[in-house]
Design a protein that fits this description.
The complex is a heterodimer of chains A (261) and B (280). Chain A has ten helices and ten strands. Chain A has 261 residues and is α/β, with parallel strands linked by helices. Chain A has a six-stranded mixed β-sheet with strand order 6-7-8-3-9-10, sandwiched between helices. Chain A has a four-stranded antiparallel β-sheet with strand order 2-1-4-5. In chain A, a hairpin with a 2-residue loop joins strand 9 and strand 10. The longest helix of chain A is centred in the middle third of the chain and has 18 residues.
């Protein structure tokens, strides 16, 4: 469902992604794992057609992200790392807004919104302004807005960053229910090892724009004789995951944490 | 991993054409613009205070500045009094303020990820720009309507005709949308809200003072007259004045509409080109 072949993204002299290749099967939950600045967000942005690739190729739902951007955008639900729900609108108004801009036909709009609300279990607070919702509620609202056009592929950039463990658990429960019910393919970026190990069918570990390992969590643990993914990461990169990132990443994390209160 | 066979439609899981693309681009553009205008109205409904606080400045111009110079016949230039003369200028200035600082919202939306989400939808980029511009125009329209009510209640002598008022509001919507697009072009190249504030002020005040918003072109020194003639705000204000006060020469109204609409088309095109850069 997602194919990435020798993808390269350069910003001037800086190589953000340096020749990454991986494939995601239909219905799979695939994790891109790595520290801040590893190139995960850049890779997802290329897949969402937000950034042009400098080299290589990528396809989503069978469409080339470079040549068939419109078809790709109509086939994905994309949730960026920052909390993107409009705080000045209610949860219901956010849903209505995204139903309209993602081209959900008027005749089925109510039904689609009701289905997305059920899938994410957000029915209780639909009429509250989004800025009054907790971080976990906001994430579920955002995922609900991304489901309205029934995309076969969900691209989630650090969907649980800044959430408390309980809110993380609920978000993942809802995502797994969605996969079981609709067969949605999920590509998720995260720097949380434990979460990646428990929630993803397969993983790719990125560091400094390179893909340094990939496989199922079990295979990665077995091939590196490791007890936890943290040890696998140390084995393939020679460092701990917290060491990555730059000031922009830190600012972004703080801004999200600030919005989450 | 990604050879020719793997990249073939069947192997790569190519799906049927997404249903979201079944309607033509023009319809998607209209739907997007409608959704954004609707969202702006919903935001205004949740936050009345915003409208009230934004209305203070135009009222100060009208009732403090205008009243101080009320009996100056040279400045009134054919209107019943100076307050009536500057009413269209104040209306255009209030709309300009909303439009120019709409770029701040674009930078905020980039910072919180809303812009990325919009750009990752099947909406045409032009639709996002037009939708944002319509959103700014909706705010300006609501504020101008309130100002017209105040003018009516205080008996300031404007010409109350349906074509005049409707035409004035239509011209105001076009002008606001054009300046909102200009603001998006600037926002696309500016990294921080603080820097945008400085640039916004730098643009807004010269646009305002080098136009006929506060004084007629005829009393301007030669160099300022030339600058004002290249300022689209001049044409917006002149058009509003002709529609609301009946002040202006034959054929000038058509020129005012042509200039403002031409400016709008150029700015929509520029903003559409600049917009993808806004997220980098």
């Amino acid at each position: 469902m997602i194919l990435v072949d020798d993808l390269v993204v350069r910003f001037g002299h800086v190589v953000a992604v340096g020749g990454v290749s991986f494939a995601v099967r239909p219905g799979e939950a695939f994790g891109l794992l790595g520290p801040n600045g590893a190139g995960k967000t850049t890779t997802v942005r290329v897949l969402a057609t937000l950034l042009p690739a400098t080299g290589g190729r990528a396809m989503v739902a069978g469409y080339d992200v470079r040549r068939e951007g419109l078809e790709v955008r109509a086939s994905i639900g994309y949730i960026p790392q920052a909390l993107s729900a409009d705080g000045a609108l209610t949860a219901r108004e956010n849903l209505e807004f995204y139903a309209r801009v993602t081209g959900v036909p008027r005749g089925v709009r109510k039904e689609r919104i009701a289905d997305a609300v059920d899938a994410m279990e957000i029915g209780e607070w639909l009429d509250r302004l989004a800025r009054t919702l907790s971080g976990g509620m906001l994430r579920r609202l955002e995922i609900a807005t991304a489901l309205l056009n029934r995309p076969p592929v969900l691209l989630l950039d650090e969907p649980t960053v800044g959430l408390d463990p309980n809110a993380r658990r609920v978000v993942w429960e809802r995502l797994h229910a969605l996969r079981e019910h609709s067969g949605t393919t999920i590509l998720v970026t995260t720097h949380l090892m434990e979460e990646a190990e428990r929630q993803c069918d397969r993983l790719a570990i990125m560091d400094h724009g390179q893909l340094v390992a990939q496989g199922t969590p079990e295979d990665l643990l077995a091939s590196h004789e490791a007890a936890v993914l943290e040890d696998v990461f140390v084995a393939v990169t020679g460092k701990m995951i917290e060491e990555g990132g730059n000031i922009r990443d830190v600012r972004r994390q703080r801004r999200i944490a600030g919005r989450l209160g | 991993m990604f050879g020719a066979s793997a990249a073939s439609p069947a192997a790569s899981g190519r799906l049927a054409r997404p249903p979201a693309l079944s309607s033509p681009p023009a319809m998607r553009m209209l739907a997007g613009a409608h959704a954004m205008a609707r969202a702006e109205l919903q935001k205004l409904r949740h936050d009345h205070l915003d409208l009230i606080t934004r209305s203070v400045q135009p009222l100060l111009w009208l009732f403090v500045f205008g009243t101080a110079l009320r009996h100056n016949r040279a400045l009134a230039a054919g209107a019943s009094d100076y307050r009536a003369y500057i009413a269209p200028g104040v209306m255009a200035q209030a709309a300009l303020f909303i439009a120019i600082f709409y770029g701040l919202a674009v930078i905020w939306e980039r910072d919180v990820g809303q812009l990325q989400r919009l750009l990752a939808t099947p909406l045409p980029r032009t639709a996002i720009v037009v939708g944002k511009a319509v959103g700014a125009s909706v705010r300006a329209l609501v504020q101008a309507s309130l100002l017209l009510i105040v003018l009516g209640l205080t008996g300031i002598g404007i010409r109350w005709t349906v074509p005049g008022v409707v035409g004035a509001l239509a011209l105001l919507v076009c002008g606001t949308a054009a300046f909102a697009c200009l603001s998006m072009v600037i926002a696309a190249g500016v990294r921080t809200r603080e820097r945008f504030m400085g640039i916004g002020q730098l643009i807004m005040m010269p646009l305002f003072f080098a136009s006929s918003a506060l004084y007629p072109l005829s009393i301007m020194p030669g160099w300022l007259h030339v600058v004002a003639r290249f300022n689209p705000l001049t044409y917006e204000v002149q058009g509003l004045r002709q529609l609301l006060l009946g002040v202006g020469g034959h054929g000038e109204l058509l020129l005012d509409f042509v200039v403002v609409i031409g400016f709008l088309v150029a700015m929509v095109a520029a903003a559409t080109r600049a917009y993808p850069r806004a997220i980098l």
